[in-house]
């Protein structure tokens, strides 16, 4: 007994590195009044946001650091995984923006995907390796939940750092096969699970290398309904995710719903033409409301189910969030609808 | 006994002026002679009867008013959600309706066919001026059509001039939004830069590419409409600090309603454009001055600002053929008890001076309702300040997290 204890203590001491936060310490009630003036920090305009805090691998805080950081980063990360599954994955792996020297300061990386109400980060963590060169941000208004997700991302990046170091030192470290990992997770949903295990489970990788190394995801605390244009320029985003949003059942609360005619104009503003809104919910009333509003909005057009079959983001949208998993385990229904941002018919 | 001060002045491009006090308003021509009023005035000085206007119910204070660009229409909105639209030819009431939410800001569209309202929940509605069926999309005309929305109190609504019309909406969360019109669901740009609630927006036919805003952050800003680019910022502190220093502008007292009253600050009450002066003018809460900002030759920047001293703290300004007219907070026994203070100014060569003729004419034309006790004009910072700044320590409302 004593020996085991000593061993575990020794292992603990070694594992002083990254630790994934536990959700149970970060629980917070789901409902928030978005009309309240909460002291939030937000920039006056998008160009004044310091993105280097969220994506340190992509944005340098000062120009002088770029040169030094560039060399450091190139030796630190492998350019592509050695596994043969590359062809399934989109684009070159693990390459970074300005740090790689191929982009000038003008062509700075920009956030392209936004997860509105990202919660504990299930979607972001699942999407990150599918689009390793694309910056994605999760937006969440609840302090504790954002706190959790930020710690989680830092921990996941830390694990990746360790794995890279160990790989360079000669250890055989594998790259994750994103497709099969996703499939495993979906299959697992049909098996009964101990709620404690679910609580601890993290769909992020801690043992294998992941394209992008989670450097391309981040979380911020923001009231999207008031401050979206403060963070994103016109036509900046190519994807917006609205998954399992607060239904705000009471009629007087309908204006607080994340999809409303008011907000659709703002989503259409930050989304580029051809960009996509992904919406999924288990609440049929909310689904009907969302679809009604999206159908009526002149700048959005419904994407057919056939077209969605080829979209790699869809399995994550449907299965990767904590909420989505809960619904699946309870054998609930999920209603999905996706819309494309189109040119203004009134201007043609 | 006391009288209400004039708190809103609106002028039409054709020279009509409307002076609003509480639930009443009086309309004069460009010479300051009364034409019509909601107050029963009998005959004016040269025996032409002053038309009696069917106004809002008493106790329904008017929050905003506006003329249409063609001068044919005038509208007011009240605290009790009433909206009244008048034909200025006869001062008859053309339409009266009740809006769902209290309207904060008003303006007519460039064609003078619709009245646009902005409410305190951030929604902008469009109301057909005519009761008859001339609405394009076959809507039920009696119900206002929603045009666009902010998730914030709407403070001011306006339109651009020029071939591509834009509707401009300003909110309490520092934003100027420029949207296409009538397809207002299509946002053209955001003007981002103000650090406090944006109170007023003005546009001008002589500078159709730009708009000017004033805000609670002590600045007046100039924007390029098409892109939202901030072209110029005028810091009011550098220009107006002298009024505090000389004691002409007074800080208030720290009260429960306005905890920041004791600080020196500059809250823009109104920005207007003046075709004759080829300038924008602004008045600032507490500051006894009118700021005149001439537009430069390039039409996208201001020339040298001019400060015109006025007798006391203003409540509103409107532009006239020769200059501008200012209404004041009550500051003498005469304007507290007898008649509200309104002064007209005109430009002569490089300077601005009181237009005595017009001022006198207005003094005998504009009467305001009587009241029992002295009226205090509330500060715009009372509603403009973000809630949490005003809450005293320890008095946390139900927080959104537990």
UniProtKB/TrEMBL annotation, chain A:
Pfam families: Methyltransf_4. The keyword Acyltransferase does not apply. Its EC number is 2.1.1.33. Keywords: Methyltransferase, Nucleus, RNA-binding, S-adenosyl-L-methionine, Transferase, tRNA processing, tRNA-binding. It is an enzyme of class 2 (transferase). S-adenosyl-L-methionine binds at residues 117, 140-141, 223-224, 243, 321-323. The keyword Transcription does not apply. SUPFAM superfamilies: S-adenosyl-L-methionine-dependent methyltransferases. GO terms for molecular function: tRNA (guanine(46)-N7)-methyltransferase activity; tRNA binding. GO terms for cellular component: nucleus; tRNA methyltransferase complex. It is found in: Nucleus. Residues 1-26, 63-104 are annotated as: Disordered. It catalyses: guanosine(46) in tRNA + S-adenosyl-L-methionine = N(7)-methylguanosine(46) in tRNA + S-adenosyl-L-homocysteine. Pathway: tRNA modification; N(7)-methylguanine-tRNA biosynthesis. The active site is at residue 246. Residues 64-73 have a biased composition (Polar residues). PANTHER family: 3-DEOXY-D-MANNO-OCTULOSONIC-ACID TRANSFERASE/TRNA GUANINE-N 7 - -METHYLTRANSFERASE, TRNA (GUANINE-N(7)-)-METHYLTRANSFERASE. Catalyzes the formation of N(7)-methylguanine at position 46 (m7G46) in tRNA. Forms a complex with TRM82. Belongs to the class I-like SAM-binding methyltransferase superfamily. TrmB family. This is tRNA (guanine-N(7)-)-methyltransferase. The gene is TRM8_2.
From TrEMBL, chain B:
WD repeats lie at residues 191-233. It comes from the Eukaryota. The keyword Nucleotide-binding does not apply. GO terms for cellular component: cytosol; nucleus; tRNA methyltransferase complex. PROSITE patterns: WD_REPEATS_2, WD_REPEATS_REGION. It is found in: Nucleus. Keywords: Nucleus, Repeat, tRNA processing, WD repeat. Pathway: tRNA modification; N(7)-methylguanine-tRNA biosynthesis. It holds the Pfam family WD40. InterPro entries: Trm82, WD40/YVTN_repeat-like_dom_sf, WD40_repeat_dom_sf, WD40_rpt. One of its GO terms (biological process) is tRNA (guanine-N7)-methylation. Required for the formation of N(7)-methylguanine at position 46 (m7G46) in tRNA. In the complex, it is required to stabilize and induce conformational changes of the catalytic subunit. Belongs to the WD repeat TRM82 family. This is tRNA (guanine-N(7)-)-methyltransferase non-catalytic subunit TRM82. It comes from Coemansia asiatica.
């Amino acid at each position: 007994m004593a020996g085991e204890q000593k061993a575990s203590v020794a292992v603990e001491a070694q594992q002083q590195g990254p630790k994934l936060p536990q959700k149970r310490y970060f629980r917070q009630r789901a409902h928030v009044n978005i009309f309240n003036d909460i002291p939030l920090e937000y920039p006056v305009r998008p160009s004044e946001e310091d993105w280097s805090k969220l994506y340190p691998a992509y944005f340098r805080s000062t120009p002088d650091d770029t040169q030094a950081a560039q060399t450091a980063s190139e030796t630190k990360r492998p350019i592509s995984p050695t596994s043969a599954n590359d062809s399934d994955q989109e684009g070159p792996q693990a390459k970074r923006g300005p740090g790689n020297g191929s982009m000038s300061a003008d062509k700075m990386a920009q956030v392209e995907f936004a997860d509105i109400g990202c919660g504990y980060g299930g979607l972001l963590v699942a999407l990150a390796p599918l689009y390793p060169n694309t910056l994605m941000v999760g937006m969440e208004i609840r302090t504790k939940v954002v706190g959790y997700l930020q710690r989680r991302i830092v921990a996941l990046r830390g694990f990746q750092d360790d794995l890279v170091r160990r790989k360079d030192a000669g250890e055989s470290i594998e790259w994750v096969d994103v497709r099969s990992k996703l499939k495993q997770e979906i299959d697992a949903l049909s098996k009964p699970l101990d709620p404690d295990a679910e609580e601890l489970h993290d769909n992020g990788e801690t043992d294998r290398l992941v394209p992008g190394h989670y450097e391309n995801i981040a979380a911020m605390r923001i009231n999207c309904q008031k401050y979206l244009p403060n963070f994103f320029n016109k036509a900046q985003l190519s994807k917006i995710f609205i998954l399992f949003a607060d239904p705000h059942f009471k009629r007087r609360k309908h204006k607080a719903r994340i999809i409303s005619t008011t907000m659709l104009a703002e989503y259409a503003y930050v989304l580029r033409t051809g960009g996509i809104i992904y919406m999924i919910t288990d609440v049929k009333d909310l689904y009907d409301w969302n679809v009604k509003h999206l159908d009526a909005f002149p700048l959005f057009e419904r994407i057919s189910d056939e077209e969605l079959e080829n979209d790699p983001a869809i399995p994550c949208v449907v299965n990767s969030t904590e909420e989505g998993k809960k619904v699946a385990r309870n054998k609930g229904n999920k209603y999905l609808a996706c819309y494309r941002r189109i040119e203004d018919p009134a201007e043609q | 006994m006391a009288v209400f001060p004039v708190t809103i002045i609106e002028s039409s491009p054709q020279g009509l002026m409307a002076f609003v006090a509480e639930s009443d308003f009086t309309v004069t021509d460009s010479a300051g002679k009364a034409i019509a009023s909601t107050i029963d005035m009998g005959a004016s000085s040269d025996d032409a009867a002053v038309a009696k206007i069917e106004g809002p119910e008493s106790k329904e204070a008017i929050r905003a008013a506006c003329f249409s660009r063609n001068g044919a229409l005038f509208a007011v909105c009240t605290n009790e959600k009433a909206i009244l639209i008048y034909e200025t030819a006869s001062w008859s009431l053309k339409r009266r309706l009740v809006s769902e939410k209290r309207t904060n800001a008003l303006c007519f569209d460039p064609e003078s066919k619709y009245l646009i309202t902005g409410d305190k929940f951030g929604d902008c509605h469009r109301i057909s001026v005519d009761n008859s069926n001339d609405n394009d999309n076959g809507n039920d005309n009696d119900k206002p059509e929603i045009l666009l929305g902010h998730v914030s109190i709407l403070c001011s609504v306006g339109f651009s001039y020029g071939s591509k019309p834009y509707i401009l909406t300003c909110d309490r969360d520092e934003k100027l939004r420029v949207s296409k019109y009538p397809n207002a669901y299509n946002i053209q740009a955001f003007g981002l830069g103000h650090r406090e609630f944006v109170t007023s927006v003005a546009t001008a036919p002589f500078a159709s590419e730009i708009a000017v805003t004033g805000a609670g952050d002590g600045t007046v800003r100039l924007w390029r409409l098409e892109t939202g680019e901030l072209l110029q910022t005028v810091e009011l502190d550098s220009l107006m600090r002298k009024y505090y220093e000389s004691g002409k502008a007074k800080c208030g007292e720290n009260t429960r309603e306005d905890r920041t009253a004791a600080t020196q600050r500059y809250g823009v009450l109104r920005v207007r454009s003046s075709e004759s002066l080829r300038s924008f003018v602004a008045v600032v809460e507490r500051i006894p001055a009118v700021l005149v900002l001439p537009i430069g030759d390039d039409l996208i920047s201001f020339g040298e600002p001019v400060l015109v001293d006025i007798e006391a703290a203003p409540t509103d300004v409107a532009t006239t053929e020769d200059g501008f007219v200012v209404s004041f907070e009550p500051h003498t026994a005469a304007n507290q008890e007898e008649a509200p203070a309104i002064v007209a100014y005109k430009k002569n060569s490089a300077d601005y001076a009181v237009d005595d003729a017009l001022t006198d004419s207005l003094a005998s034309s504009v009467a305001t309702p009587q009241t029992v006790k002295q009226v205090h004009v509330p500060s715009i910072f009372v509603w403009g300040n973000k809630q949490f700044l005003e809450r005293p320590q320890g008095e946390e409302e139900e927080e959104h997290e537990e």
